[in-house]
Amino acid sequence: MSRMQRLSNTNPLRLVLNNATRVASPSPFQHHHQQPQPQPRSIPTPQQPQPQPRSIPTPQQQQPPLSVPTPQQTVASLNSRSYTNKISLFLFILHLVLAIGLVGFLIFKGIQGLLEEGRAQRNEKRILKYFLPQVEAASFLSITLAFIWQKAVRVWPKLMVHFIIWSSFVLTLAAGILLICFQRPATDGIGVLFIAFSIGNGLYACWVTQRVSFCTKIFIKSLDPVSKFPDLNRPTYWMLGAGFLWMSFWILAVIGALNFSVPPLVIMALVLSLAWTAEVMRNVANVTVSRVIALYYLRGMQSSTQFCFQRALSKNLGSACLGSLFVPAIEALRIVARGLNLVEGEDEFMFSCAHCCLKVMDSIFSRGNGWAYVQIAAYGKSFVKASQDTWELFQKRKMVEIVDSDITSSICFLTGICSGSICTIVVAAWTATVHRGYIGTLSILAAFIGYLMTRIAMALPHACVGCYYVCYAENPENRLFDKTIPDRLELIESGRDVAVPTPRVPRRFQR
């Protein structure tokens, strides 16, 4: 027995003795799925006590804890079959049916006025000759620019971030100067608005200079998975094609509205309807891309783009409709909040309203933000729930300052401004040679069309950046992520880099 005690640890006889004396009991989760294996009987020795009999776990102990999700629950969460935000989905479908009916009726009124002899016929012929060609040309030009901008951002992200910020300033300034040169009351007012926007754009470009380098790094990293999905851009093509067809019928409805009662109100309703519809189209493309990229980050899955597109048009369409209404307003509130923060003073009475607005914006932003589309696409959550969960993730990972200072939304917005300014310059110069009376109306319409079409195309890079942030916050240990965000967090915590977040309520007013 003394020789047996001196055996090496790798000796087979010593291994048999160790297995006989030290028996590890299985975990309750393993015991629930596997039958217990029979253990070899121990060999008693003078120096070795008898092993205690192993207790058999009770049925209550065999069940896994409720906090540990089973594989079946994970699969169900990724393939939710319930429709999200059904009320907003119903309202959008109702609005779409009414819009189609109104457009069809106005087109009929336009054809009727064109066939009847009189003043209405002469006005519509003049509009069809000097108004319609420029609008259709603006639609074609905007789609072309949309493809060019998106391709350029995907191929040269580092160059395009700087180029978009400063070209938007130059192009809006050029459009404003051109409109003022026509010396008409309508064009002078529109030109002043363009110049005022260009001045604000230039100030913003100077303000975000420190954040451009990090934005380019995020663009480069987030666009890496796009090459693994050759058909990822197909939903954007479908949305742009549908947008162009709807835009063509919409223009004919605007012409027909001139022969209907109260034309300004009807045209305003058509403009609001087009804005909501185009925003929903953009968010459908956003949700589609977000699901494909998010499942790649979270599960390593090569998802079908067509299946994700069908899911975005059915299960998640309600959340896309609700987000299309609130996210633009929330982004506008962020701009207002930044302006209020710049004029903040020490007079509590004078600036109490500003601090109240900041507090309201802070509460709204945590319940409705553009980052929610990633969890809407991946887990099928409602818009408000996805916004809250995403913001809690950012707070847990201490990423609030980083996502607040992100300028991806601004880059996509300024890309649309660039396209709108180019369309305005082309259409205004063309209209000045054929019918100067339509310059003001066509300039606004061309800018609106160019902006909407480009925003639809920029949904792909925007969604990729959103997936990079949200999926990192959910699983920072994923091997697909590098040290870009951790290094940024370390610089902010050490005080060597100061992010410029969305203004919050000062601490002295949070009591």
Automatic annotation (TrEMBL):
Q: Which UniProt keywords apply?
A: Membrane, Transmembrane, Transmembrane helix
State one molecular function term (GO). Answer: transmembrane transporter activity
Query: Cellular location of this protein?
Result: Cell membrane; Membrane
Listed Pfam families? Choline_transpo
Task: Return the annotated region ranges for Disordered.
Answer: 25-72
Locations of Pro residues compositional bias?
A: 37-56
As for membrane topology, the entry says: Multi-pass membrane protein
Sequence ranges of Low complexity compositional bias: 57-72
- Transmembrane segments in this chain: where? 89-111, 161-183, 189-208, 407-430, 436-453
Instruction: Cite a GO CC annotation.
Output: plasma membrane
Function description: Choline transporter.
Q: Which family does it belong to?
A: Belongs to the CTL (choline transporter-like) family.
Q: What is this protein called?
A: Choline transporter-like protein
**What is the organism of origin for this protein?**
Buddleja alternifolia
